[in-house]
Amino acid sequence: MSAAQDFCFVEVALPVPMRRLFDYRCPKSTALIGARVRVPFGKQDKIGLITGVKDHSQWESDKLKSVVEVLDDTPVIDSASYSLLKWASNYYCAPIGEALFAALPANLRNGKAQTLQMIKYWQLAESLADDDNFAEACASIRRAPKQQNVLLRLKEQPCPHDKLRKDVSLAVINALTDKGWIEAIERVPSINDAWATQLDISGSHRPNVEQALAISGLNACKGFSPFLLEGVTGSGKTEVFLQSIERHLLNSQQVLILVPEISLTPQTIKRFESRFGIEVDSWHSGLTDNERHLVWQKSRRGEAAIVVGTRSAVFLPFKNLGMIIVDEEHDSSFKQQDGFRYHARDLAIMRAKELNIPILLASATPSLESLNNALTGRYQHLQLSSVAVSTPNSSKDIIDMRQMSVEQGISEQLKARIHWHLQQNQQVLLFVNRRGYAPAIECADCGHVEMCKQCDNPFTVHKSTQQWHCHYCGAVKFATRYCSHCGSNNLKTVGFGTEKIEEKLNQMFPEHNVARIDSDAVRSKSKLQEMLDKIHANEYHILVGTQILAKGHHFPNIAMVAIIDVDNALFSADFRGFEYLAQLITQVSGRTGRAGSKGEMWLQSSQPEHPLLQDLLMNGYSHFARTALPERRAAGLPPFHYQVLIRTEAVKIENAVGVLQELKQMFHMKQSVAQGSVQLIGPFPALVEKKQGRMRMQLLLSSGSRQLLHRVTHNFVDSLENSKLAKKVRWSVDVDPVDFY
Ligand code: ADP
Ligand code: ZN
Ligand code: ZN
Questions:
Q1: Whole-angstrom Cα distance, residue 192 to residue 188?
Q2: How confident is the model at residue 383 (pLDDT cuts 50, 70, 90)?
Q3: Distance between CA atoms of 484 and 445, rounded to whole angstroms?
Q4: Can you give the pLDDT at residue 436?
Q5: Predicted local confidence at residue 76, as pLDDT
Q6: CA–CA distance, 694 with 689 (Å, rounded to integer)
Q7: Quick check: CB of 632 below 6 Å from ligand 1?
Q8: Cα 301 from Cα 299, distance rounded (Å)
Q9: Are 543 and 411 in contact (CB under 8 A)?
Q10: Tens digit of pLDDT for each residue in 229-258?
Q11: How far is the CA of 480 from the centre of ligand 3 (A)?
């Protein structure tokens, strides 16, 4: 046999920022599409994935390197996942290798075996194997029913650590280990694939009329059908989820529920578990690599019935997926903001389409994108207009900041309301809207805001250049010290961060504890949990936080909520600023008055008569959203126009700008159809203009035609890959960007 017959060539996708595949020589007997390989790449070995096997290579075969090792004898990626990821990598202009590797759990990315890894289990200690000893032990902890329950549970069978922790605290586990009654072991998880026969559906509510309509709509659909469920907080959306997934589970089909990171609470999981009487798997960043690997395997073998997961759960390799639900579909945490920049909601739609299954997007405050799809009939529109269990509505009012003295963002009136509630021994919650990061410039005398006349958009201050920029059209103006309306030199920037507010509150109310909860606190999950526990225990009376606090968490003792800096969002440099604010206000007002008392909400603004704000307070989110749509259309903004953002970062600003200028020149030199229909805006600085010593610039592409925009973007990416100047900068492409940071 000749050597040529023993060898073939494989195309390998590697997790590197290059938009191409790499050819290697590989023994024929082990070359398998979808298998991982270890290959030499540069100075080291890398793990890659075989996407093609062939007899010839366009490269000279004696120059090609050979794979070091093929790691799998069964593919880690099936053809359905592959085709979704291939589509996604093309759509998002991302390297296929990055997309494929984003879909694999870390264990597999790192080259570990596909077979299940050992995880930590708890079991009874040897000493309790004896029935008498066991009974004695139980009797001795009669006063500690939680510990007793754990013993009884472990007597039946060992329990994975993660699962036990869902029900009991570490303190309970530690108490039992200290007594020497339970012990931790490492073992390969046992797997249950008989869930379909164990379903025990209980606790369903009899649906009200709107719920019944929604459920029957969902049950009647066949094949790919997208739905938008629009319903205020507490209107019974989750109940609709529960009842509509029933038929899929009874058919042995799996269900995926995507949720924003922050709303994934043990309560959500428990609610699903108690309704169906089976285990529900969760998928989020707090799991260990082995736990993720397990959920991945269970999904693939059809052994995970329901997975509730964040963003990247959209890639789980389900064997038999019956339905996808995206809860809080408007949430921007579904967008991956670095590396492979995908939108999990949009990929979920694509996945449902490929699998020909229904998908339900749900929100109290749908994104304008989804709402538009529903209003134009692309999605079926389901609505729940009233709360399932009535609670007193919260009052919502504006504090006119021009009318009173304001200390560091806290008005006299707000201070008085905080004081009053603290005296009643109630908690108050203050939001500082981080999205309004870039402040507007406002005249303290007349309230005038400096606007770009072309766009009716407030100018953003850029301190480094002493300039004002319009982020819509790229117009630049030198900063002036005088109000262009009344000539006063009393101009001020608007905006406060959480820390400043916290400091102020500590001064104002020294006898009360202030908890600050922002993304710094969330970075460590345990710290957040500790804070939340303390809030529940009433150890904090004043909470200051960002959007993080708006969702998922229920604080029964909060009687008042205030949004400190509504103006920042009113004049946000991001055209979605007001949409986000409207969502926040609506979600937040669902946080108050939960314990049966009427809640109170205050919005601080220097623009109390702002039409959007008035509309939102008088008519609610759904009216606001329906009015905002025609405005977006008129302004040529999403969802009617599509956008792509090209970002550059470099130590020297000339390089960051230069690369983008090069693209722009190239575009204008070429005579093409795209020219009239694709607009280029910029280069303009990112809202965060300098980060880690690098200057950040952006070029915005916008078009009413997705195809043309896509074509231009791909051309741009090609020239970026070949440009000498581009080698001096970091660049990235963001298709359908959700922010301009
Ligand atoms: P959402 O998900 O829209 O916030 P939920 O489904 O959590 O709403 O419902 C809010 C509350 O109302 C829950 O306590 C739920 O058990 C209850 N509920 C929902 N639907 C009904 C119903 N048809 N009858 C009685 N109670 C209901
Ligand atoms: Zn402008
Ligand atoms: Zn003025």
A1: 13
A2: very high
A3: 12
A4: 29
A5: 95
A6: 8
A7: no
A8: 6
A9: no
A10: 999 877 899 999 999 999 999 999 999 999
A11: 12
Distance from C-alpha of 319 to C-alpha of 503, rounded to nearest angstrom = 53
Counting from 1 in the atom list of ligand 1, the atom nearest the Cα of 384 is 3
**Cβ atoms 702, 677 nearer than 8 A:** no
Q: Name residue, tokens 């359905």.
A: 80
Read off the pTM: 0.82
How far is 61 from 25, CA to CA, in rounded Å? 8
- Give me the count of residues in the chain: 741
CA distance 49 to 70: 9
The secondary structure of 91-159, three-state, reads HCCCCHHHHHHHCCCHHHHCCCCCCCCCEEEEEECHHHCCHHHHHHHHHHCCCCHHHHHHHHHHHHCCE
Residue 1, pLDDT score: 42
Write the single-letter amino acid at 264.
Answer: L
Q: CB count, 10 Å around CB of 619?
A: 12
In the predicted model, what is the mean pLDDT of residues 701-707? Answer: 94
Asked if pLDDT for residue 435 goes beyond 50, the answer is no
| CA atoms of 318 and 296, how far apart (whole Å) | 8
Q: Map tokens 């200390």 to a residue.
A: 407
**312 CB within 6 A, ligand 1:** no
- Tell me the sheet residues that pair with 461: 468
- Tokens for 97? 């290798």
Indicate whether residue 388 lines ligand 1 (CB < 6 A): yes
The number of the ligand nearest the C-alpha atom of 387 reads 1
Place of tokens 């590989």: 26
Say which residues have a Cβ less than 8 Å from residue 669's Cβ, sequence separation at least 6. Answer: none
Q: Who's near 182: CB < 8 A, 6+ residues apart?
A: 122, 123, 124, 125, 150, 151, 154, 173, 176
Nearest atom within ligand 1 for CA of residue 208: 23
- Work out the widest C-alpha separation in the chain, in whole angstroms: 92
**Helix crossing, 368-375 with 611-635: angle to 10°?**
70
Please check whether residue 542 is in contact with residue 501, taking contact to mean a CB–CB distance below 8 angstroms.
Answer: no
Give the whole-angstrom CA distance, residue 533 versus residue 540.
Answer: 10
Residue to probe by mutation, ligand 1, list 389, 391, 551, most atoms within 8 Å of CB:
389
